[in-house]
Fold:
Amino acid sequence: MTGLRKSIPRVAPKAYEYVKSVLDFGFHNAHSVGMTGRLERQFAQRFGHTFGIAHCNGTATMQSALLAAGVGAGDEVIVPAFTVFSTPAVVLQCNAVPIVVDVDPDTWTMSVDEVRRHITPRTRAIIPVSICGLPPDLDPLMQLAKEHSLVVIEDNAQCVLGKYHGRIAGSIGHFASFSFQASKTITCGDGGILICTDEDLALAARKAATLGFKDLTVKPGNTAVSEQLRCQPDYQRHDRLGWNQRLPEIACAVALAELERVEELAEMRSYSARAWHRVVQDFSWLVPQKTPDGYENAYWTWAARITRDDIVWADLLSTFIELGGDGFYGSYQPAHLEPVFANLNAAVDAAPDRYPHFAGRLPRYARGMCPVWEKIQPRILMLKTNYFDTDDADRQAEILAKTLKRFN
Structure:
């Protein structure tokens, strides 16, 4: 792919054809042209699983996985400090306790040693995150899960076609969650999909996403109960708690078209990442996220850490923009330092009877819980890789080089 020069459309041409077929058929309660089924089947197969369940977003996917795994009030779920807040949020949505653990100092993915240290009799699941496009160290996490009867949910919102020791990221955990939000490699504006191989877990997740209808199946696209059943006045519809988190078929049509060109989309992101990487090789004070041997980073973003104390993050950003750069992002706050956790601690302290599932069980979410990531996080910059023209990526890399020289 080195030396690649190309431009691709922002939306797959096939998307227009697939959307038109949905619109031509019209919207019906229990009938469709089958786009949801095609997406669920093909996505699961492409990422090494048997079953797919399309969702309205990539947060609902993880909530369904936790509910399918039986996670509930007072249970503990281990999540990393470096992640979008959706990851711990879904744990709270299940009335369970997020246990936030520190990261590896070089890869910034979930530390296996920290996971091991935080497993308790209340632990029910682990959500390792493929952050910035880099898979975490999954084999030892799966071994820990086996030893302690835990469910592993890969949060792969940022990792499409990444690899871990020859296996595609998303194929290793009991579940894998993907996002179709607008910034993601495969997108339909918003949405997500959950994949797995265990049929019982897949059915439980389907029900969790579809109002708990008791006669749903794991068949691709089975998101509604047949009219023959629903029309009966004595029909009892719901046998477990579930939410209404289905992905509309018109969105599935777009996501399907994007899935069918996923290699091309991933290739464009890798091109941008290589362009950034070539630039920073000349600047030892900017250290990229480490991709260990045997891993392939999918580069949802290209991230690096500023190691010189005299360089102010905001000054670097303003100079980059001044020279014509698109800008870059800082890292999200360490998950445990988001204000929602401090507010929750205060609420439980003030009214423990109102939160019996949290009282005496919530950690004290505060600075010092994850010292490795707390130190690194303020010095991170994350550069875009979603360029659809390689000339644009090259131009931005040239501007970054000019920017860094000013600080050299």
The radius of gyration is 22 Å. The longest strand covers residues 301-306. The mean pLDDT is 96.
